[in-house]
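Changelog excerpt

This revision adds worked examples to the README so contributors can see how folded entries look when concatenated. The first example is reproduced verbatim below.
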Amino acid sequence: MAEDIQAIRMEIDAIDEQVLALINQRAQHAQTIGRLKNGTVYRPEREAQVLRRIKEMNTGPLADETAARLFREIMSACLALEKPLSVAYLGPQGTFSQAAAVKQFGHAANTTPCASIDEVFRVVNAGAVDYGIVPVENSTEGAVNRTLDLLQDTPLKICGEVDLRIHHYLLRKVTGLDDVKVVYSHGQSLAQCHEWLNRHLPSVPRVQVSSNAEAAQMAAADESALAIAGDLAAEIYGLQCLFEHIEDEPDNTTRFLVLGLHDAGASGHDKTSLLMSARNLPGAILELLQPFARHGVSLTKLESRPARSGLWEYVFFVDVEGHRDDPAVAAALVELKDKAALLKLLGSYPIGVL
């Protein structure tokens, strides 16, 4: 048996040499393309095409998501050879926003925490960072209204989206549940783990804090405290993971938007976001929706928010399937422009995947 294991290990070593050589060969080609482009280093549409292709080609035993994550990191490292990307997110370190940034850009990107969603918009618009990641909606809690409000006035473009499955972990500085005095977490996370906490820690007080990362910081400083946060926070703040996936809804997902100063090209599987408002006429809202129906364009989101232009006026945030350069979407937008009191294209970008 020992001889068999040694033989297999020798084969693995030989494969590792081939893999390393091929990765470096890929990096050299990426550097050449970077010199030829003389422009934007990060092309979300190209990366989406690569990751979709990897999943289609994958025959296992690695899961499709695992294979895609490996290639995401390879692409991230190759991009860093040209120019390490800087990405702002809603901090502090260890938030799900940072996890979304890592999922989209890989560990080679430089992530910068911001104190608010407003600050993420501001630093991207000022050119202090290349991109920003902001939450826009959660599958159980609904829309993030601050993000929708800021999209009304910003010149920034949506050039990508990230769907992140939200898994909550019960964290502590030490192991075990003895002498626990408090559970810290963000209000939404406490709500999302309500039933689990009722079953397992019914008498332990729950205290809301500004973020799960802050909860992890507080638990790291107090051995009698628990925190509900993500696994990234456990890694950053040196906490023990006592229980995994304690959320009541296993499919709980947050959608994040990638903000930048440029549009994304068509990837073949895209989404277009826009905002529009109706004229104050009977049937005006119906008229805004008819161009999409006429041209066979599917709406995936329709959300209203108060407009900044006046009292009791509203704008509608709309997501549709397809890139704005696709013939059907383009035709619907031309028709919509004549019917809407306000029409603003927020961006076309590759559809995010879990």
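The second example, added in the same revision:
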Amino acid sequence: MSVDSLKTMMGIVFQNLQAVQSNLANVDTPGYKRQEVDFQTVFMELQNHGELLQPSSNYVKIDNTTSWRLDGNNVDPDKEITTLIETALWYQGITEMLSRHFSTARQVLQMLR
């Protein structure tokens, strides 16, 4: 995966963190519907096409599933914490790939000296 693709993924990770933050901030807002980012679709598009096929903001989706709460809010704090952990794992994976990419580039440059 290219550095540009990894940069794009970092932007998506940031958007997901913002969505989780918004979800948790609105946990008591009547009628609020949670937001989420579809990482799998983003990752597959970057893998298959080398770029996103839509603007990155289009990957933030509103979860319109029904709520078990009477006020219509469908934010589950436990699910948001799980999403936060998943997002941290995505971040960790992306930073590891970037680190390996730059480590390889550094080794090549050292061999050329």
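Reviewer comment on example two: The first helix runs from residue 3 to 25. Residues 3-112 form one domain.
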